[in-house]
Fold these 4 entries.
Entry 1:
Amino acid sequence: MISSDCNGTLMFPSESETIKNDAFLTKLEKKVVSLSEKYGLGEVLFMERNPRNINSSDTFIIRVPEDWSSEMIFDVWEPIAFEVHDFARKEGIKNLAEICHVSVSNRY
């Protein structure tokens, strides 16, 4: 575990029981890791939904360097978001946001 707060527990995906027990999240983790490698980004973290906070959700976070500007993050986020949603549709998921989120961030 990297940290825990009101939004959830931040950890490496391999530490998450949620991912280990969910076939789609396991596949999505592999996809997100491959996208991080494809775009030359950093490690992938997973934040588990906090059941006590209705505003939290399971989230994959792709790390980028802390000094990246918002523009640089958006430039890489857009193609990643498209590929993630396309992957989810091919897996039969109509609304990925109901299951989890994928983000690219320099804040973690």
Note: The first helix runs from residue 17 to 20.
Entry 2:
Amino acid sequence: MTLSLLPLLFSCTTEVERPELEDWSDGYEGDCCPQVEGDGGGTGDGGTVIPFGDTFGLFALEDWGYSSRLHRTGATGTECEITPGEGPSGYAQMDCTLDVPELDLFGAGLYFDLTVPEGACDHLVYMHYMYEAWEVGYGPTTVTLTVDEDGELVSEENAIGGSPYCEYDYSFYGGDFAPNCCLGAYDIYTYDLASGETSLTGGGYWGGNAPDCYAGAAFEDPEAVLTADGWPTAKIVNLWGQPFSKRFAFDLLGDSYYTNVNYANYFDRADHDGSVPAGFTGDWAVETYEFLCYDSAEELLGRLDMTVREWNEEVEWDNDGDPDTEGTEPVSGLELNDRQDWKDATPGATTWIQNGQ
């Protein structure tokens, strides 16, 4: 989603009801997770105080047992924070990384704090990461059927069994378990072998809906607001120089998914043929968690881009070592890499994750 689209997608906060899914937690007994959702005013639910800060920054939680660290990308120990300029000439930007052990992310959710100091921003705009899970594309513009003198189908093009077919309509075979991602319109031409004539016999739209083919934190946000066709909207907070703080709290992934890719947007280009995962190439993909500081005339004063990286071993996380270790645990024989990220889920640059999430 490009910045130029953001004014069309600003919204206030509301809740989106989601269908109940099978409980993931069988085998992981115990109470989980205090209520720590922020209310945008410095105090989180459950009495958690989120103080106003002196910088425009993103911070890991320090008030309960959730394991995470948030820092400038490539500089562990350096805070993810900037001082926005007083005008566009003072624009400041930082790339940041939130490190989380894989089961904390999968079984507890995603949590972090944002602070905006007094006098920094007239408007705060934020948008969460999302990706194209199923490839979206435009279908053919013509469907051709050939019939004999009895009206029996002899051959066809862009059709199966006489029904128009688009490769991006995954519901054609998958039914309710797969979306229709085919866009555009088509005409049906029928060639009659007996008369030698071709006639226009119908047509229509392929009927795909691109938002149905996307996934990611923008859709999982408990405060998500969706447009009429299903796109998550960017959020705008009108500050006019007032300080602001908020705790972001996303539910556990384990209720709905098998992997961590809905929150963990980190990838290494070396794992994707020197490029990016296919899901990041979609026209509406948002590669990072974006936090933008504007003045009243919508000039950009500061920007933070956050990447979430999940870790396969706690000992590696503790020592800031290798997040992607492979192999098995020495006694149990279970995998060290229990939950897939982009490296495992879609190796190379042409694989779409589809329902492998």
Note: Confidence is low (pLDDT under 50) at residues 1-47.
Entry 3:
Amino acid sequence: MREKECYRDNLERLDRRFPEKECLKQKECAEFLGCSPRTIKRKYGITQITKAAFARLIS
């Protein structure tokens, strides 16, 4: 399977923003995207996710 176009860029941005974490909570995902945690739950259906999976999801 081929990587999505912006996956690496998104993963790098997530690594810079959250260097000490491997998994992100709903609130952190919301902060990263500039929306509310409720929007993250509604749009993506997640409460916790790895940085790699989140980078793939938003790519």
Note: The helical segments are 7-17, 26-33, 37-44, 51-58.
Entry 4:
Amino acid sequence: MNINKQIISYCPNFYKIMNFTPYEDDFISEKLIKLYQKYIFKIDINNLEDINRVKQLDYVINKYIDDYLFRKEMQKQILTIKVRKDAKDILKEIINSIIKIFNNYEEYTTRVIFFSRWI
């Protein structure tokens, strides 16, 4: 099987993400989609950690497209990403930061609902 087809099989939202048309002035979305495309085709298909990160990234970018509030939060937070000067793979560091932003968003926006019991 072709490696690119195998990588796309791990990304169920690939075509949706690639066909997404951002607003005219939305440069962050364009860059984010280019980073997504560049990263997924750069991974080592035999490395399980890379495959899991690609699956997470696919989910995060799909959420970015679908969820307006998350998109606004990501656009705010992505401008604050810092990469160390001694980083070996800058793209990988940026992708890890994007996934971390998503995890923080999920943690802080999920409401905890308690069911009270009436006596």
Note: DSSP finds six helices and no strands in the chain.
